[in-house]
Amino acid sequence: MNNIFRGLGVALVTPFTAEGEVDFDALRHLINYVIDGGVNFLCVLGSTAETPCLSEQERQAVKDCAVATAAGRLPILLGMGSNDTRSLTAEIEAFDFDGVDGILSVVPYYNKPSQQGIYEHFKLVAAAAARNAAAAGREPLPVVIYNVPGRTGVNMQAATTLRLAREVENIVAVKEASGSIAQMETIALNAPEGFGVLSGDDSLACELISRGGCGVISVVGNAIPQTFSTMVNAALDGDAARAAAINEQLQELYRLVFADGNPAGIKALLNAKGLCANRLRLPLTPATDATVEGLMRFKN
Known about the structure:
Blueprint: E1 7-11, H1 24-36, E2 41-44, H2 56-70, E3 76-79, H3 85-94, E4 102-106, H4 115-135, E5 143-147, H5 149-152, H6 158-167, E6 171-176, H7 181-190, E7 196-199, H8 205-210, E8 215-218, H9 225-236, H10 240-249, H11 251-258, H12 264-272, H13 289-295
Parallel strand pairs: 1-2, 1-8, 2-3, 3-4, 4-5, 5-6, 6-7, 7-8
Helix pairs in contact: 1-2, 3-4, 4-6, 6-7, 9-10
């Protein structure tokens, strides 16, 4: 099964109202904004969406809003992860994936499983996705596995990723946020044909693409979709000089957006651009005044 998640994917934030509820009007506006900006796919209910702080009902409503607003204009990758394999596979089997084109599933967090445990977890996740699709009379749903040791406490090694890529047909890509270009390059060079390596770090997107990656799932793309899309697609088209020039101009933005954690920085910038309010759910808090001041020069 080939990977359809290429180019610029945006990890959407979840806007909130003054009352602390999901702001669906702002979410629809943001989705149209990034689609008009030329992004290649949407990532819904990832880390940037503050998903751990959303109820089951809110997660379903956010998914439905994204599907209805995108209206088939581009693929949707839906975040579904847990450190409890049994509960996650049961949720996947029962979930309504209508309008969803793939699952993004993170390495189990907190438990710190072995490499064999990670392998067996994702093998069962992919099988649950295939069973769900079979029950609905559809082709198996593609799965993108997500390695982010800074959040999970364990690194999925290149050998484990490659084993899954070779042995599990509907595992089609990895979102790599290990920070190790060497690890990412090893995967890209040795993966089977059609398997994708996506950067999980905005600042490493260009370098990873130059070493065989197929794109990025981006945070800053929420705010500057057109600029970031131009950079990513220039890199994919082999125009390294153009991509590098844009990347150089964005170095300070990368630093500021993540200075106070994600999505504090990107929500501050989106607020400055009039795209959503600067509100987060505890335990996350807004960016500091110093960070907000620095971000102001990127609001236009």
